[in-house]
Write a structure and sequence with these properties.
single chain, alpha/beta, 8-stranded mixed sheet, globular
Length: 219
């Protein structure tokens, strides 16, 4: 499938799939979306020193990199697991401008390390941030009672409805610790109902630029 690097409204880049008319991140602002959905309405809710995060759709590495930067500011220790069935190509990563757009040139080596590390191996990205990238399909996840927070950043239900089913959200529910949170950019009624059907308490929140609402689900 053809893939293009495009510039989003906040000046940050993302990968666009013309056949699906779908992007890895919002065309209204890749960085703005990541900060609003996953940091403001997810990570910022946790005050504990050690946080375990599962990302559904590691993709470009933007969410993991922004989380790393936030943890540097807040002095948090994070165990981060990113699941991705179809890794982004190195030549595509090299065209993304997240380091410069985030004014994080001092951490360029960290962004590169995140993408260069071997799949399936837990690596210390820094003294307080560990990363494990797992190449697997989302329905193959078997973790139970492990994570404080899930970033659910799969392609939208319009193009991949099989990723937004009760079966998938039951896997997510089981993977979270009690009181754990799942955040996603989606606000579809069918997604909310699927979450609720497996036991989540679901909130509608104000969405990032270009979207009226998003969802946050609590176990």
């Amino acid at each position: 499938m053809k893939r293009e690097i495009i510039v989003t409204n906040d000046g940050s880049t993302t990968i666009h799939l013309p056949k699906w008319n779908e992007q890895y991140h919002s065309k209204y602002g890749a960085i703005l979306e990541a900060k609003h959905v996953f940091i403001k309405n997810g990570l910022s809710l946790f005050s504990n020193d050690v946080i375990s995060i599962l990302e559904i759709g590691f993709g470009t590495g933007l969410n993991s990199f922004i989380t790393f930067l936030e943890c540097e500011i807040r002095d948090l220790t994070v165990d981060y697991v990113g699941v991705e069935a179809y890794p982004v190509l190195t030549k595509e990563i090299e065209q993304l401008n997240y380091v410069s757009a985030l004014k994080a040139n001092n951490f360029n080596a960290i962004f590169e390390k995140m993408h260069q590390q071997e799949w399936g191996i837990k690596n210390k990205i820094s003294t307080k941030f560990s990363l494990t990238k797992r190449k697997q399909f989302f329905n193959e996840i078997t973790d139970e009672n492990r994570y404080n927070l899930i970033y659910f950043d799969a392609f939208g239900a319009r193009v991949q409805p099989e990723l937004w089913t009760e079966a998938i959200f039951e896997i997510m529910y089981n993977a979270l610790k009690k009181g754990g949170i799942l955040v996603t950019y989606s606000a579809k009624g069918s997604v909310r109902r699927a979450m609720q059907s497996v036991g989540f308490v679901v909130e509608r929140l104000a969405g990032p630029p270009g979207k009226r609402e998003m969802l946050r689900a609590t176990k």
